[in-house]
């Protein structure tokens, strides 16, 4: 709990934390406030916002409640963003630790594979993966993780390269620990902090990629997504631009919140390090 | 010059391995896709089981996976990307047709984001911690949070629907019969919005990097020395601080090229620009896996070439790069 005052030192970090708290509340409250299918018809089609108090943000082309869709979309965005980022960080940390700790041929092969993944435009890779395997929530998460693990892998490897020369690693070798046990129980936990510092950027990128995929019609068809809402609204862009604007604003605020909170955390840890 | 050649040789060897991994990866994806080329062919032409057997045999699809991988590699060595299912034409032809548009779009967007981004970065980094620095930092963060396709739609609503200043999409006025300069101007008008949508997102990146690099450079001794010599402030900012902060941005140009190719997929489909990105979306819509993988391969080659060019430019700009290897 001592950390919290540090976290909320800068106004940007406070703003970021507030936005994220609001989003989390929206995502958690969605099934309570808007029970039932958000994709069900709730009223007349293309009702403008602020006309009917039971439908505050109006309805879309098919008469679905925009506010309910927005709340349920927050669920998808946050779930996909967090799951994909967690998977990417996990894969990256494992690959990076293995490459850095094993060295030699293993390192060479793993790093060339990392190079290859960084050469292929990540969005194209995600696009191809989802279109071949078929759109569902799990596949979208896997596709995003597949295109985002390289950054964490490089950072983890660089960190492991310096850690593996330390005395406690030599000590672990001397007492006869298995190399894999040293790699994952002694080295990996100590290499994690700089890898975790990437998480805000990766969560933000994952949310944006998910939105772009659903915008192109490759999201899970059974779930409301903000990207899908924007694509829906696009068909009536001339007459009802708010249908595209509203979910877009939600996306921008979400990603901005993630960035701001992430910067706040990085700044506060940097401050604690310089203090100690 | 030998320095650049040594660097080039080493990078080329690395690139061949990377490309090989990409090719094997795309082959595996192709294998994972439901159905093969014969299924796709039969759907459009019809035919019985005997015909399917015959075609599978003729196209080498009844052989083992390793043989097929070898055939695939052999075809790629001859720059043969196979046949598109939806277009019924060689994939190489289609891609070469669409590539120039994407290159123009990417090139202009890169110029916009790099030019404006580094200029604003210099402006912000000239006085770290000032109001304008804080304003630009937050502003660029907000810009960086905007999805490119949504920015594109907002630009369409404002500039094409409400103000009617610019066309809503496409690459040029259809059947206008324009040639030469007036055609170029027509294309420029059509590309103004897509280039802005793609460029503004990445502008933030260059701005932030430039600003961070300058804040770092201000603390270094050579800047102190320049101030002690009594050089005018503007000269210190441009010739000493900004110049040293500029180099990492050049590296970023190469790294960013892959991101921008991915970004152009959505931007091109928002603005109906007939480039490589839109082709990728058409391939997805038509379940044309060979075409999609062809696009991925060509994009990867493009990324490798751009990064090689950036590395060479970097070696040219910074005499320290590769100097040790050339003499060794």
Short description:
The complex is a heterodimer of chains A (276) and B (328). Chain A is mainly alpha-helical and 276 residues long.
Task: Please provide a written account of the structure.
The complex is a heterodimer of chains A (276) and B (328). Chain A is 74% helix and 0% strand. Chain A is mainly alpha-helical. Chain A has one domain: MetI-like fold, CATH 1.10.3720.10. In chain A, helix 3 (66-102) runs antiparallel to helix 4 and helix 10 packs antiparallel against helix 12. The radius of gyration of chain A is 22 Å and the shape is elongated. Chain B is an all-alpha fold and 328 residues long. Chain B contains 13 helices and no strands. In chain B, helix 1 packs antiparallel against helix 12 (289-317), helix 5 packs across helix 8 (180-218) and helix 9 (221-228) crosses helix 10 (233-271). Chain B is globular and about 85 Å long. At the A-B interface, helix 4, helix 5, helix 10, helix 11 and helix 12 of A face helix 1, helix 6, helix 7, helix 10 and helix 11 of B.
List the helices and strands and how they pair.
The complex is a heterodimer of chains A (276) and B (328).
Chain A lengths: L2 H5 L3 H23 L32 H37 L1 H16 L2 H12 L3 H10 L3 H14 L3 H8 L4 H18 L2 H17 L10 H9 L7 H34 L1
Chain B lengths: L1 H31 L4 H9 L3 H10 L6 H13 L13 H35 L5 H14 L3 H15 L17 H39 L2 H8 L4 H39 L4 H10 L3 H29 L5 H5 L1
Helix pairs in contact in B: 1-12, 5-6, 5-8, 5-10, 6-8, 7-8, 7-10, 8-10, 9-10, 10-11, 10-12, 11-12
